[in-house]
Specification:
The protein is 39% helix and 23% strand. The chain has 7 helices and 11 strands. The strands form 2 sheets. Strands 1, 2, 3, 4, 5, 6, 7, 8 and 11 form a 9-stranded mixed beta sheet that branches. The chain has a two-stranded antiparallel sheet with strand order 9-10. With 257 residues, it is α/β, with parallel strands linked by helices. It has 2 domains: 161 residues, Alpha-Beta Complex (Spore Coat Polysaccharide Biosynthesis Protein SpsA, Chain A), CATH 3.90.550.10; 78 residues, no CATH class.
Length: 257
């Protein structure tokens, strides 16, 4: 009745607890994209069907590949750094006995720097994660993928637990990585921006997260998150500006004086 799909790369720190939390599923599909650690071996030990891709087409396309490997009527898509608490697992099992919609959103409670973040735009962070296999498909985008559903969408009462960053260094690294992908996507769409726009985007991001989304209620962690998000905006649009200019990083030698 239920397939769980997970895409992975070097997730040995997370994959065991993730798989332990979804043992109620009828099948677990892990699609790996070239792990060099023990991710695949650990996944097999916990009953997952492990497949491997030889390229990386982006998050949306990769999750659609995993979706195509599923065989059950319903699909639960989760990431390796997420966990399904017992209450949510029980809710899903009961719901699938008599579903009332083609898909369900689920809230995601994320942690950072030793605390659960309940503001800063991080909560409730509802996403479609449970859906009929034939009624949903991921948007074919490189990052920030979501499920497009044909049919009614309802909400689950429980929530996922999310452990996205093991350190500030991990957050900064991912922010830099995602900003590069986002800049390329904007460049491909023909978007442009100037210096004032870059500064304005970064400033607005900080205000939106720290003040409007009440990140200040998340304490010092909220301040750091708002600052890193603003930096990510600055990186994204600076990279877009450089892409549009086709910047040559090694200029010609200056004329002799």
């Amino acid at each position: 009745m239920l397939s769980v799909i997970i895409i992975t790369k070097n997730e040995e720190a997370h994959i065991v607890e993730c798989l332990q939390s979804v043992q109620f599923a009828d099948e677990i599909i892990v699609l790996d994209s070239g792990s060099t650690d023990q991710t695949r071996e650990l996944a097999r030990q916990y009953g997952a069907q492990v497949h491997q891709s030889t390229d990386w087409p982006g998050f949306g396309a990769q999750k659609n590949r995993a979706l195509e490997l599923a065989t059950q009527e319903w699909v639960l898509s989760i990431d390796a750094d997420e966990r399904v608490p017992a209450a949510l697992a029980q809710e899903i099992q009961q719901l699938l006995l008599n579903p009332q919609a083609e898909a369900y959103t689920v809230a995601r409670l994320s942690c950072f720097a030793g605390r659960w973040i309940r503001h800063s735009g991080w909560w409730p962070d509802r996403l479609v994660r449970l859906f009929k296999r034939d009624s949903g498909r991921f948007k074919d985008v490189k990052v920030h993928e979501s499920v497009v559903v044909q049919g009614a969408v309802a909400a689950l009462g429980g929530h996922l637990l999310h452990y996205p960053y093991d350190s500030l260094e991990t957050l900064i690294s991912k922010t830099n990585q995602y900003s590069s992908v986002a800049a390329l996507m904007l460049h491909e769409k023909g978007k442009t921006i100037g210096m004032l726009g870059i500064a304005g985007k970064a400033f607005w991001t900080f205000v939106r997260i720290y003040i409007i989304r009440r990140g200040f209620l998340d304490g010092k962690a909220g301040f750091i998150l708002a600052g890193v998000a603003a930096s990510g905006s600055f990186f994204r649009y600076s990279k877009l500006w450089l892409l549009n200019r086709k910047t040559q990083w090694r200029p010609k030698p200056p004329p002799m004086t």
